[in-house]
């Protein structure tokens, strides 16, 4: 048994002080006193929060999900643990079918054989079912029409599929996924009309992939995907690096979506955690300079900012306190992939996924299922 003392315990609707968080592999209790024979962790006045969950991340520290190897996934898992991320969805790219299958197989293997670092919850399949007009940093050579047959053998590994619903003939794929799986369908890299996006949502699409990025813009007569995202009850991924979306819009998004439907992600690529230079994404050259990752064409190619800093940026540019904004990288992503019965908050009986941060969201400790996976 372990316990954390002298911490500001961050719950969804309050911050507790002078309490003790007690846990083994699960959260056991929040009590007034330290139990006997308990290993003590002193938070020294810092915030004790749920572990962060990144549901959209391609890579970190020179490694990428599409490498299709346990070594790469382990490197990513260890690296992001330094930022308070205790679980994540390795995210694929629009590439050759064999490479995608290799990546999914590697993710499945690492789920079954627990690796060191942040826990792999499953996969986020970003492409190849997207629209070439809004492919972003995806490779158009490998874009194909949505097909359940292409992913059926990994439907228990995949937790999210990013797709363009306007390329889904008569929404057959949408209906099939909803009928046969618990996979969250996320609209992204899409040129769908407002009506097409809303119909997909009515049929069961529940998420939007990195809102405003990789989709048509908001127009007063043709609201498009953004309009559907802001006027329906879907979860909206958001890259809060102040590059993908102007920071002045953070409060606007919050005012429209509310606190329960925003999901902060990194969309981090292999350059995350490394210096400026030349890297790769989906077999394409990426140039990183001044915290911006771009293809040679100038298109943004994911981000290099860790999730804890995304949370800090959002807090710094809105009217929210830490306990509210932490939700966007903990319980909200957990709910979006239907694992909130186990993860996402410091509730008794849930997995002991915990992070310790200072007031600027610098991470001092990460704990997954009761095990310390990072200590500063």
UniProtKB/TrEMBL annotation:
The keyword Hydrolase applies. It comes from the Bacteria. Signal peptide: none annotated. GO terms for molecular function: N-acetylglucosamine-6-phosphate deacetylase activity. Residues 47-360 form the Amidohydrolase-related domain. Keywords: Carbohydrate metabolism, Hydrolase, Metal-binding. Belongs to the metallo-dependent hydrolases superfamily. NagA family. NCBIfam families: nagA. This is N-acetylglucosamine-6-phosphate deacetylase. It comes from Romboutsia sedimentorum.
């Amino acid at each position: 048994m372990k316990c954390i003392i002298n911490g500001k315990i961050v719950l969804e609707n309050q911050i507790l002080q002078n309490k003790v968080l007690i846990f083994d592999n699960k959260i056991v209790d929040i009590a007034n006193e330290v139990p006997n024979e308990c290993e003590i962790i002193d938070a020294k006045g810092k915030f004790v929060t749920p572990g962060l969950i990144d549901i959209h991340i391609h890579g970190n520290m020179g490694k990428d999900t599409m490498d299709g190897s346990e070594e790469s996934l382990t490197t990513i898992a260890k690296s992001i643990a330094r930022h308070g991320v205790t679980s994540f969805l390795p995210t694929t790219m629009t590439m050759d079918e064999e490479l995608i299958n290799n990546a999914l197989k590697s993710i499945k293997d690492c789920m079954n054989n627990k690796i060191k670092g942040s826990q792999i919850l499953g996969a986020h399949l970003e492409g190849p079912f997207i629209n070439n007009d809004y492919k972003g940093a995806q490779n158009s050579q490998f874009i194909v029409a949505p097909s359940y047959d292409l992913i059926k053998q990994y439907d228990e590994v995949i937790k999210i599929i990013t797709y363009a619903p306007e390329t889904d003939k008569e929404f057959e794929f949408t209906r099939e996924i909803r009928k046969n799986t618990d996979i969250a369908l996320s609209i992204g890299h899409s040129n769908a009309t407002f009506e097409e996006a809303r119909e997909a949502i009515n049929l069961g699409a529940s998420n939007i992939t990195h809102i405003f990025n990789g989709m048509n813009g908001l127009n007063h007569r043709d609201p498009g995907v953004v309009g559907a995202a802001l006027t329906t009850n879907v979860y909206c991924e958001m890259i809060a690096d102040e590059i993908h979306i102007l920071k002045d819009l953070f409060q606007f998004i919050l005012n429209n979506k509310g606190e329960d439907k925003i999901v902060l992600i990194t969309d981090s690529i292999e350059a995350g955690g490394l210096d400026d230079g030349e890297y790769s994404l989906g077999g394409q050259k990426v140039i990183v300079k001044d915290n911006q990752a771009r293809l040679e064409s100038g298109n943004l190619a994911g981000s290099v900012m860790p999730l804890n800093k995304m949370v800090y940026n959002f807090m710094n540019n809105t009217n929210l306190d830490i306990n509210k904004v932490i939700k966007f990288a903990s319980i909200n992503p957990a709910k979006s992939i239907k694992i909130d019965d186990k993860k996402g908050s410091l509730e008794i009986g849930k997995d002991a996924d915990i992070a310790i941060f200072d007031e600027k969201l610098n991470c001092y400790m990460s704990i997954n299922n009761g095990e310390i996976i990072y200590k500063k």
